[in-house]
Amino acid sequence: VIDKLTLVLSSVQDDEMREVGNSKSEKERLLHAWTLYCTFKLNSRFQKQRAYFLHTLLLLSNVLSVVLAVLVYELDEDGEYAEWYDVISIWLLPLMPVLSGMLITISSKFTPILKWSSLSNGSEQIKSEIYMYRARVGEYMPRVKNSGRAGASVMRTSATTSAPADANFGGLCV
After folding, report:
1. Phi and psi at residue 141, in whole multiples of 5°?
2. CA-to-CA distance for 143 and 124, rounded, in angstroms?
3. pTM assigned to the model
4. Is residue 20 pLDDT above 90, yes or no?
5. What is the radius of gyration, based on Cα positions, of the chain?
6. CA torsion angle for 174, 5, 124, 17 (degrees, to 10)?
7. At what angle do helices 22-78 and 112-135 cross, to 10 degrees?
8. Distances, alpha carbon 124 to alpha carbons 35, 79, 115, 118, 139, in Å
9. Tens of pLDDT along 52-107?
10. What is the DSSP string of the chain?
11. N or C end: fewer C-beta atoms under 10 angstroms in the chain?
């Protein structure tokens, strides 16, 4: 994904980029990058919530298994509450490890923690690429044949064309 974003944003402003429609295409590239960032950020939050939910259910099922096992042990020794003893020992206690196993299987099958970390890392990499592109550093540095007057116009156009796209879209996903 990062390679695709780099490819999309890799056009630097040189002599060929001063053609008609460049500022519009630059704004479209930035808006597309911010949309991709927002999508990754939203999906990472969803995967994080899913991971917390599955781990909470797994923790509760394990605690409930221990509580039921202790309850069956105590009820067996006292001889009291015989009607609850059968329900707990025959139905609930054997089902708790099955429930825990199903939750572990679901968690390992869908791997929400791995998805969360990948999406979160990807969104931050996209944001880093966007700001590197806007600052015209690294591989996005303009390559101009004449370093005289053309360099000044490159800086002036890059500052005016990229600021509105970031200002309008950047605060929506944070």
Report:
1. -65, 135
2. 27
3. 0.65
4. no
5. 29
6. -70
7. 160
8. 13, 61, 14, 10, 18
9. 999 999 999 999 999 888 888 777 666 666 667 777 788 888 899 999 999 999 99
10. -HHHHHHHH----SGGGSSTTHHHHHHHHHHHHHHHHHHHHHHHHHHHHHHHHHHHHHHHHHHHHHHHHHHHHHHHHH---HHHHHIIIIIIHHHHHHHHHHHHHHHHHH-HHHHHHHHHHHHHHHHHHHHHHHHT-GGGS---S--SHHHHHHHHHHHHHHHHHHHHHGGG--
11. C
**C-alpha–C-alpha distance, residues 149 and 157, integer Å:** 13
Tokens 């979160």 sit at which residue? 120
Two tokens at 68?
């039921």
- The Cα 155–Cα 173 span in angstroms is 28
DSSP 107-128: HHHH-HHHHHHHHHHHHHHHHH
- The residue with tokens 């990499």 is 125
